[in-house]
Every structure is written in C-alpha cells, then in structure tokens.
Amino acid sequence: MASSPNNFPKNFLWGAATASYQIEGAWNEDGKGESIWDRFSHTPGKVQNGDTGDVACDHYHRYRDDVALMQRLGLQAYRFSISWPRVLPEGRGRINPAGLDFYDRLVDVLLEAKIQPFVTLYHWDLPHALQDWNGWGNRDTSAYFADYAALMAHRLGDRVKNWMTLNEPQVVTFNGHRGGEHAPGLRDEKLALQVSHHLLLAHGLAAQAIRAMDPQAQVGIVLNLWPFETQADTPEARAAAGSGWAKNCGWFLEPLLRAHYPPVALEEYGERAPMIQPGDMAVISQRLDFLGVNFYQRNLIGSDGKPVRAPDSEYTEMGWEVHAPALRRLLVRLHQEYHAPPIYIAENGAAFNDKVDADGCLHDARRVNYLREHIEQARLALQEGVDLRGYFVWSLLDNFEWGWGYSKRFGIVYVDYATQQRVIKDSGEWYAKMINSS
Ligand code: IFM
C-alpha cells in the first residue's frame, strides 16, 4: 500500500471527535427535549462546580466557525454525535424538524469543507422521556433506538457513509447504572448488566435499520478498551487481569465478535447476568464494518492482583497513566486474537492543566508528546498487520467532561468559556502539521 511521508497509508484518515452534550449547548432551544444529562447536571451535587451543558461550547450556534477551524487544522474527518432528544424530543414518535435541520446543515458545511462526517448515534444523552419508562433497563428502548437510527439514516444517509451506533456502552452500563456518577445516576449492578445487553441489542437493531436504508453504509460501534496489564507475572496478577478484561472489555467485545458473553464473566456475575432472549446474540453479532477503539490508558495490576500506579510513569489531570505502547499491544491483540474488523482509533487524547500564556498562545508540550507517542504506536501496529483506518483525537475542543464539568481540558483547541473564544493550542498546530505531511 502507498504510504505518505509520515509513513501512514495514503488513505489513512486523520480526524477529531466531539459529542453533542459536551459541546452543543442550546439545551432547550428550537424544540429540543430534555436528556438524562440535562436532568443530571441540573441536579445539585452531581457535577463538579454545578457545571452543566446548557451552553457548553455553544457549538449549536457556532458550528460554522468550528468547521472553519477544522478546515484550518486540515482535518479529513470529524466524528460528532447526534443528540437524540434534539431530533426526537420524547425519544420516539414526534419529530423535531429544527433538530434534524441542524444536523443537516452541519453535514453540508462539513462536506463543503471536504471533511468526512462520522456520526455517532448515542453518546450518552438519552431522551429523559425514555428514562421515565426505565430507560435502557427497558428492552423497548433498543427498538426505539433502531427507529431513531432509521430516521437519521433516512435524513443524512445520502451524505453520511460512516455510522457509529453507540459510544462506550461500558461507561453507560457501569458509570451510569452501577456507580451512579454518570446519568441517570443509578446504583444497581443487576440492572446495569441488563442495560448492557439492551445496549448491545440496540446496536444490532440499529445496524440492521441503517443497512436497510442504505446497503452501502459502513456501520460500527465504539468501545473503550483499556487493557489490563500486569506489573509482575504472579498468579494473582494474571487472574485479576483476566477477570478485569473479561468483565469490562470482553463483556462488550465478545458478544459483538463471538456471539456470546465471556464465560468467566458470566460465572462471576452469577444471578446478576442479563436475561437474553432467543435470537438476541445473532442480532448483536452481525457483521461490523469497523470497530471504533477509544484508548486513553491501561489498567495496571500489581503482583497482589490489585490496581497499582506505575512509579516511573507520567499521569494526566484525570489521573490516567501515559503509556503509549499499551495501545499497540491492544491493537495487535484485537487483530490476532479477536480477528477484529478494520479499526478506527475513535478517541485518544489527554487532559492537562492548560493555561493561555502571556503571548496569547497555549504551549501544551505534554499533550504534543502524548499524541506523538500514541500515533507512533498506532503506526507500529499497522506495521504488525493491524488494519487500522484512521485516528480521531479527543477532542477538537475543550468541553464538558461529564461529572468533572469544565475542570478537565482535553481539546487541541482551547475554549474560553466566558467569551467562547477558541485558541488553537500548540498540540493543534502540531497535529495540523502532521496531517499536512501525510
Ligand atoms: O470525554 C470523554 C468522552 O465523552 C468519552 N470518552 C472518554 C472521554 C474523556 O473522558
């Protein structure tokens, strides 16, 4: 395959990613319905500093400028998500035409700028009206999701070719329904595991619905796969790493790629395991055109089988270890052991304590290093035979980091939330140069 000066294949896609609730704002404008994140962030004590996504990066009003910024960075692809309650305020039934128009305009502006849209259908902002009926705990939600997917494929399918059904169902499952630190803020492991099954089913039904609209559509799902690695090769460490992987990563990967939940995880979950109806696993495991992988860090396990910090590693503002070789090992494992379909790195990035300097610039050398090291490991994975098709940095803009509010900055573009001014960070300039050399 032809390769470019930076040694990536010529058709490798370079992009950036965002999500609706994290950047759009306009939480109750033009007929949008309430989402579970609107309700959650409006509940005192749920989000740091009482921050909400009410305004966020005001992208709903500034999308043209933001696309111009993407063009200035030379992005070839942009991954964004659709706010389900913006287009279907109650989650089903009544359509909000103004919501559809917004995404229609966004896609047109992207295509005019020669930027390929990658659309995520669910990045966590469930219509609250569906939560009133038990949300993802209700099997019917999977069917409503497929109807919503069909609506979007019908409206945008003439221009959008790449669809990502769900973003990180693991986080929806465990942070939203077991730990309670994400919307809808529930703490019930049995419910959470049922939710995970309904999410996977929703993915499968949506994939069918999109393909029924457009047989050429490329459909995938995005998983956060943070590998479990051992510091020392003890039986305790090996057992903990195996179980951690099965219960967190394998739990989503194996139904999709092998049509069953990992037996060791099923055994550990015991009577909390989800109810599965006949035919579900076939719907879930239908062909994936690609797998989206979100990678930020590894889970390091100490010799006693407990999580441990690596003494010599750098850690980000999220407390996440910077260790890029784990990305290569993960990609190679997905390729060799799981025979994964083509892969996109759908998110990779880091939060650091960014400050604009006296010169008006933002010198985020640590983020430049983070990106450089991870992109290098992605390149090595390609050399080892992984069918890697593209890389999306998380994130284009600083944005609402869920329970952390605006306290964590992941952008390659800084956002001054008081003025909504955008400043391209050094990492953004570096990324632009790197893309330009490809
Ligand atoms: O901001 C999130 C994103 O919404 C999902 N993946 C991880 C990112 C950083 O925490």
Can you put this structure into words, describing what you see?
This protein is α/β, with parallel strands linked by helices and 438 residues long. It has 15 helices and twelve strands. The strands form three sheets. An eight-stranded parallel barrel has the order 1-2-3-4-5-7-9-10, surrounded by five helices. Strands 6-8 form a two-stranded parallel sheet. Helix 7 (140-156) packs parallel to helix 9 (189-213). The chain is globular and about 55 Å long. Bound molecules: 5-hydroxymethyl-3,4-dihydroxypiperidine. 5-hydroxymethyl-3,4-dihydroxypiperidine binds at residues 19, 22, 168, 294, 347, 394, 401, 410.
Helices, strands, pairings?
Blueprint: E1 13-17, H1 20-23, H2 36-41, H3 59-73, E2 77-81, H4 84-87, H5 97-112, E3 116-122, H6 128-131, H7 140-156, E4 162-167, H8 169-179, H9 189-213, E5 218-224, E6 228-230, H10 235-258, H11 263-269, H12 280-284, E7 290-294, E8 299-301, H13 325-336, E9 343-347, H14 365-383, E10 388-394, E11 413-416, E12 421-424, H15 426-436
Parallel strand pairs: 1-2, 1-10, 2-3, 3-4, 4-5, 5-7, 6-8, 7-9, 9-10
Antiparallel strand pairs: 11-12
Bound molecules: 5-hydroxymethyl-3,4-dihydroxypiperidine.
